């Protein structure tokens, strides 16, 4: 499974949990957000990571503080167009296993 397939798999997983897709692969100078979804009234910025092996800490360890900072900046850029800022959170979808279909969903994975 490649990166875009992993993002589609994560999107499908989250849709099955009643989240609604707002934007896929939001890009700005600050960085990229894989998925922007809505969970009720909550705006959810989703980082999708896939690792076939748990070596080097697995998928979770790949979301470094540098990556988190880029995601926060990109989210701020996205939110700049809103008149009123909705409640937000950052989730991580971690895919693992030889086929990449073992899913771990971490709500509120990080934030400011």
TrEMBL record:
Entry keywords, A to Z: Endonuclease, Hydrolase, Nuclease
Taxonomy of the source species: Bacteria, Pseudomonadati, Pseudomonadota, Betaproteobacteria, Nitrosomonadales
Organism: Nitrosospira briensis
Protein name per its UniProtKB record: UPF0102 protein SAMN05216386_2992
GO molecular function annotation: endonuclease activity; nucleic acid binding
Family per similarity comment: Belongs to the UPF0102 family.
NCBIfam families: PRK12497.1-3, YraN family protein
InterPro entries the UniProt entry points to: Restrct_endonuc-II-like (IPR011335), tRNA_endonuc-like_dom_sf (IPR011856), UPF0102_YraN-like (IPR003509)
